Amino acid sequence: MPDAPTAVDSNAERRPTPIHDRLDRAKHRQAVAQAQQAGQSQRAAITSAGLARSTVRHWNAPPETSAPAALAAFVETPEGVEWLRRVQMAAHWSISEQGGAGVRVVCQFLELSGLSVFIGASYGTQQAFQAELERQIVSEATDLRAALAKTMPHRTLSIVEDETWQDGMRLVAIEPVSNFILLEQASAARSAAAWSQALERGLAGFKITVVQGISDEAKGLLAHVKRDQGAHHSTDLFHLQHEVSKAMSLALRRTQQQAEAEETTAKARWQAECAAEQAYHRQHHGPGRPPAFAARIDRALEADVQASLARERAQAQRAESKALIGAFSAVDHPYELEQGQAQTPEQLQTHLEGLFARLEALAQEVDLSERLCAHLAKAKRLTHSLVATLTFFFMTVNTRVQALDLAPAIEQAMLNDLIPALYLERAAARSPSAEQRHRLRALSAQRLAPLQQPAHPIQSLDEATRRHLEQVAGDCADLFQRSSSCVEGRNGVLALYQHGHHRLSPRKQQVLTALHNFSITRPDGTTAAERFFAQPHPSLFEQVLERMPWPARPARRRPRPAKPPHLTLVAA
Hints:
The chain is of the alpha/beta class. The protein contains 21 helices and five strands. Among the domains are: 1-152 and 504-572, no CATH class; 404-482, no CATH class. Helix 9 links the parallel strand 4 (208-215) and strand 5 (232-235). Helix 5 (78-98) crosses helix 6 (103-113) and helix 8 (192-202) crosses helix 9. The two termini are 45 Å apart.
C-alpha cells in the first residue's frame, strides 16, 4: 500500500528515521530478504535489523499500482530508489532549469510517464523539490568556482561587458573565448565606479590580469576600462555598422520603394495610352483629326524607361550600401582573409577610409538629411578605435613572442605562420557560409604545412615545448576581439526565460548563471568553466544529485465526492 507523503521525504536538512527514509527502508528490506535467503527465520531476520514485524509487513504489502510487477519491485530496492531520484532531478534539470518550463510541466511528465505511482507528482511536492534543487545548484557552483580558482594558472585575458535590462538593470561581463560569465548581477547604476566595484567582486579569488575590454562607447564603460582597469578598450564593430545602417538603410529602402511606385505608375500610364489607342480604332469616327496617340505613347514609354532606370539605380545603391556595411567585417582582421598575410594599421586605415568615402558619395547621391549624415559621421569617428585595436594586437603579440626567447627562425615561424594559421582557423568557425569556412580552413592548413615538415626548426623542439608554443600562439590569436556578441546572446537567453516566467528571481538568475558556466557544454564536451580554468571539474549534475533528498512517495488517492447539481430538489 502506498505510504502517505511525509515532510522528511522532501526536506534535505532533517535526517529522517529508517522507517521513513526511502533509501534506508529499501536497504533494510533488502537486508531482511538476504537474511531469509541465508536460512534465518523472518522473526530473526527482522529482529537483527532492529525493526518491528508490523513495520515489515506494512512494507511488504502489495502496492496498489498498475505498474509492472518487475518495475514495482525494482523501485523498492536501493538501486531503484537512487534511479527514481536521478530521473526526478533530471526532469527538473532539463525541463524547468534549462528548458524554462514550469513545475507543472514536470508534474505532467511524471503523470504521463507513469512515474507518478512511485513519486509524488503534486505541485506542492515538486515545487519544494525544485526549490531545494536550485539552492543546491547555486551552492555547489559557488564551491566549484572557489575550488577551481585556487588551482587555476594565471591568465591574461580580455573581457566583454554590457548591461541587460531583464527585471531591472544587470551588469554582465563574459570572457569571450571560453564564454565564462564572470559577472552577472543587478545594479542601480552603470557608472565607471559601479562597473569597477562589480568586476572586482566578480574577479575575487581569480588569478587574472585584464588587458582588454570590449564594449560599446558608453562613457562609464570607457572610463572603467581605460582609467580603472588600465586596459585597452576595443570598440564593438557592430556599433559602427549599426550607425552606418541607421544612416543609410532606411533612407535607401524608401528611395527604392518610391522608385518602384513611380515605375508602376509610369507603366500603368503607358499601358493606358496603348489601350486608349486600340479602343479608339475599334470605333467608327467622323471627319476630323484623330488624337496624337503616337506622341502620347512615346512620352509615356519614355517616362516608363526613366522610372525603370531610376528603380534599378535605387536597387543598386541599396545593394552597394549593404555590401559596404558587410565589408567592414571583412577588412577588420589582423590577417587579411585572402592570403592570410598580416594587415598593418595603416592598411586598415586606408581600407576604412575607402569604405567611408564611397558611403559619403552614396549619401550625396540620395541626398541624405543632416540628421542621417550625423549617424554616418559618428560611425566614421569610431575608425580610429578599430585601428588602435589592431595596433594593440600586434604590439602585444610581438611582446609575448619575444618573451619566449626563441631562436630567430622559430620566432619568425610563430609570427608569420603559426599565429596567422590559428587565427584563420578561428575566423573560419565564425564564417557565415560553408564555402568561406572551407576556404579559410584550407588556407590555415596551407600556412601550417611548412611547420609540420621534419626539416623545420620547430620540429627539433621537444613535444612539451611545441605544445607550449601552440598554446601561446592560440592565446595570441584569441587576443583580437571586436565583438560583444557573447553578452548580447546572453541577454537574449535571459529575455526568453523572462518571457516564460514573467520575472527572474535572484535565485533563478544565479541558477541560470551556474548552469551556463558549469553544465552547458559545447560539441567538444567542455563547459565554460573547464575552458576558462583550463582544467576539468566534477559534473555539476552529479555533485548536486548527491545532495538532493529522496523522492517523496505518492499520497493515497482518495476519491472525491461528486458535485451535486445546483437544482437538486429539496424535500419540503
